[in-house]
Amino acid sequence: MILLIGAINYVNLTTARASERWKEAGIRKVMGATRATLVRQFLLESVIVNFAAFLLALVLVTVLTPYYLQLVNKPTTLSVIGAPGFWWLCSILLLSTVFYPDSNPRL
């Protein structure tokens, strides 16, 4: 649930920054960039940011889970990361935030 809220927040922040990116895309077009070049650039930036955030979140969950379980006095471990449904959900969420239509400026 927290991951979904974070993804929605990311999409909202990206949409709010879109006007700045439109200006950048306009300047790059004037300087001679093609549409394909701009699409590749913005998609690559989106993939890098989302994948880095995903890896950071995964490391934080893995490292902090034992401390959290100790804090709430739960003797069991969270084996969510090993579940196949978890990886499907993460893949879908990662792809949906990378290819969200408003995350890339109109070219």
For the CA atoms, what is the radius of gyration? 18 Å
The ordered H/E elements are HHHH
Structural class: mainly alpha
Number of helices: 4
Span from first to last CA?
33 Å
What's the number of extended β-strand segments?
0
Helix content: over 70%
General shape: elongated
Largest sheet: none
Uncertain segments of ≥5 residues (pLDDT<50)? Answer: none
Task: Outline the structure in words.
- With 107 residues, the protein is mainly α.
- Helix 3 runs antiparallel to helix 4 (84-98).
- The protein has helices at 2-16, 18-30, 35-71, 84-98.
Features:
single chain, 107 residues, mainly alpha
Secondary structure blueprint with pairings:
Layout: H1 2-16, H2 18-30, H3 35-71, H4 84-98
Helix pairs in contact: 3-4
What's the quick description here?
With 107 residues, this protein is mostly helical. Helix content is 75%, strand content 0%.
